[in-house]
Design brief:
This protein is mainly alpha-helical. It is built from 10 helices and no strands.
Length: 188
């Protein structure tokens, strides 16, 4: 792993577990085993590192949807929707992705950070909307715009609850009920 990626990986972990404001560059350097000079060589400042961390996290999570779209081009709209939702729920169970969701939640709860990353949040939301709308357009009973917003909002809520839940959170059962609800709602 190259040093830049090593710094990003350590920063993701620390930002997710300690918070952005509570993570000094010196701790990132110590755990990455790099100098401050190298961090500032790769990233203009701590905010620049934050943007890179967010971009890396978004790439990994968005890869879930991209893979689903590539594999499922020949499936029915119902099967594409189920597959896409399956992959999203599967990503929630990944320990690595759980860190990303923790980090994401922390950023969303800090107004200054939301402003700093607004363009990246907007772009990510646009991509999520497009991924759902591309499926929902093929379902006559769907309102692709409204239903896409609803799906994203509900998935965010489920992810947030899962993030702070104890080990007995029934994610698999919630996934099944969630998918079943949308199959009924959309008349599939």
């Amino acid at each position: 792993m190259d040093k830049k990626q090593q710094i990003i990986d350590v920063a993701i972990k620390l930002f997710a577990t300690q918070g952005y404001e509570n993570t000094p560059i010196s701790i990132i350097c110590e755990q990455s085993k790099v100098s401050k000079g190298l961090v500032f060589h790769h990233f203009k400042n701590k905010d620049g590192l934050l943007r890179e961390v967010f971009l890396r996290m978004a790439q990994i999570i968005e890869g879930v949807g991209d893979n689903a779209d590539l594999v499922n081009e020949d499936l029915t709209a119902k099967d594409r929707l189920v597959s896409h939702l399956d992959k999203i729920f599967l990503s929630m169970t990944s320990a690595e992705h759980k860190l990303y969701y923790q980090f994401d939640f922390q950023v969303l709860c800090q107004p200054a950070l939301r402003v700093l990353l607004k363009d990246l949040f907007d772009e990510r939301y646009k991509l999520m909307m497009e991924s759902f709308q591309s499926i929902l357009r093929d379902i006559p009973s769907a309102s692709s715009f409204v239903d896409s917003h609803m799906l994203i909002a509900e998935l965010d809520g489920i992810a947030l609850n899962y993030l702070f839940a104890e080990d007995d959170y029934p994610l698999e059962e919630i996934k099944q009920r969630f998918i079943g609800k949308y199959i009924l709602l959309l008349g599939l």
